[in-house]
Specification:
The chain contains 13 helices and twelve strands. It has about 325 residues and is of the alpha/beta class. The chain has two domains: about 190 residues, Isopropylmalate Dehydrogenase, CATH 3.40.718; about 140 residues, Isopropylmalate Dehydrogenase (3-Layer(aba) Sandwich), CATH 3.40.718. The chain has a twelve-stranded mixed sheet, sandwiched between helices. Helix 9 crosses helix 10.
C-alpha cells in the first residue's frame, strides 16, 4: 500500500495552549509513534511557544513534511500573528481561521490524509466573520454537507459518545429532537464505526432524554414519542441498537462493555462522562465527512497558556486516531 500523505494540523487560537501542545506532541513523536504531520501557518508562534528553540522548519509543500518531520516540526505557509499567551485577539483569530480553512482545503485535495484541529475560541472567531457554532459545522459547510450529516463523536480509551444536539440551549433540546434526526445520525455513526474504527458489527446504545428514560411517561414523553420509535426503525433496518436507556446508568464500567458507542440526547449528556473518564486522552472526531478530522477534546485554556503546564495527551491521541482512521479508509478504498 502506498504511503499516506502527512496529517495537516491547524494551529488553533495562538493565544491558547494549541501551539505548545502541538510542539510538545512533535517532541514526543517517537515514543508516541505519531504519523508525520505539519502545521499550517504560525511558524513564529510555534517557535515562541517551544521550550527548545530551533525545532521549527518552514516548508514549501506538504510533501516536504515527511523528511523534515524526523528532525524538525514542519510548518507550511507564512501566515503569522503575535504570540501573546492568554490574551486572544482578532489578529490571532484570523490566523486560526486561515489555518483551519487551509488545512481543510489540503485534505480535500488529497495533500493531507487528515485534519487535526487545535482548540479555537468561538467568540474570537466571530469577530473575524466566522458564522458557525463550531469547527464541526464549518467543516460540514466546506465539505458541501448538511450540518446534520456532520456528526460529533467524543472518543477515548473508555468510551465513545455522540451528542445528537450540540451547541444549543438545554431548553431547546426537546424541540430539536426528532425520529428523523436520531435515525439519520445513528446510521452515520454505524457506518463510521465500521469504516473508521474497524468494528465489523457495531453496537449502539441510546440514552433517554429524561430522568430514568422518562419512567414510562411519568417524567416526559420524548422517549415513547420520538426515541423508541426511531430505535425500532433502526432495528428493523438491521442495526444493533438498544434503548432508550437511563443515562445515569449507561456509563458504568459494566454497561460500557455492552456497546461500541453511546448516542446521547444533548451536549453535556455525552461530554460529562467522556471527560470524567478520558479527559487527557479524549478526542473530538467528526463523522460523516469525506475527510478525516479529529481534535483534542478540550478548549483553548487561556488561563494556563504559555505556562508550560498544558498536557499534550489529548492532542497526541487526536494525532494517533487521525492516522489510524486515515489508514483504515485507505485500506478499504
Amino acid at each position: 500500500m502506498s504511503v499516506l500523505p502527512p496529517l495537516a494540523v491547524s494551529l488553533g487560537d495562538p493565544a491558547g495552549i494549541g501551539p505548545e501542545i502541538i510542539v510538545e506532541s512533535w517532541a514526543r513523536r517517537r515514543e508516541a509513534r505519531l504519523p508525520p504531520f505539519f502545521v499550517v501557518g504560525g511558524e513564529q508562534v510555534l517557535e515562541a511557544a517551544s521550550r527548545t528553540r530551533g525545532v521549527i522548519r518552514l516548508i514549501g509543500s506538504a510533501e516536504e513534511a515527511f523528511e523534515v518531520f524526523k528532525d524538525r516540526l514542519p510548518v507550511l505557509g507564512t501566515s503569522e500573528a503575535e504570540y501573546t499567551p492568554g490574551e486572544p485577539s482578532a489578529e490571532g483569530a484570523a490566523l486560526a481561521l486561515h489555518s483551519l480553512a487551509e488545512s481543510t482545503r489540503l485534505a480535500l485535495l488529497g495533500k493531507a490524509s487528515a485534519v487535526v484541529t487545535a482548540p479555537v475560541a468561538k467568540d474570537q472567531l466571530a469577530t473575524v466573520g466566522f458564522e458557525f457554532p463550531g469547527q464541526t459545522e464549518f467543516l460540514a459547510e466546506v465539505c458541501g454537507l448538511d450540518q446534520d450529516d456532520a456528526v460529533m463523536m467524543l472518543a477515548g480509551p473508555s468510551l465513545r459518545a455522540v451528542p445528537l444536539t450540540v451547541h444549543c440551549a438545554l431548553a431547546d433540546v426537546s424541540k430539536r429532537l426528532s425520529q428523523e434526526l436520531i435515525i439519520r445520525r445513528a446510521r452515520i455513526v454505524a457506518t463510521a464505526l465500521r469504516r473508521d474504527f474497524g468494528i465489523e458489527s457495531p453496537r449502539i446504545a441510546v440514552c433517554g432524554l429524561n430522568p430514568h428514560a422518562g419512567e414510562s411517561g411519568r417524567f416526559g414523553d420524548e422517549e415513547s414519542q420520538i426515541i423508541a420509535p426511531a430505535i425500532a426503525a433502526l432495528v428493523a433496518d438491521g442495526h444493533s441498537i438498544t434503548g432508550p436507556h437511563s443515562a445515569d446508568s449507561l456509563f458504568t464500567p459494566r454497561a460500557r462493555k455492552t456497546y461500541d458507542a453511546a448516542l446521547a440526547m444533548y451536549h453535556d449528556q455525552a461530554l460529562i462522562p467522556l471527560k470524567a473518564l478520558d479527559f487527557d486522552e479524549g478526542v473530538n472526531v467528526t463523522l460523516g465527512l469525506p475527510i478525516v478530522r479529529t481534535s483534542p477534546d478540550h478548549g483553548t485554556a487561556f488561563d494556563i497558556a504559555g505556562k508550560g503546564i498544558a498536557d499534550p495527551g489529548a492532542m497526541i491521541a487526536a494525532l494517533k486516531m487521525a492516522g489510524e482512521m486515515a489508514a483504515r479508509r485507505a485500506a478499504h478504498g
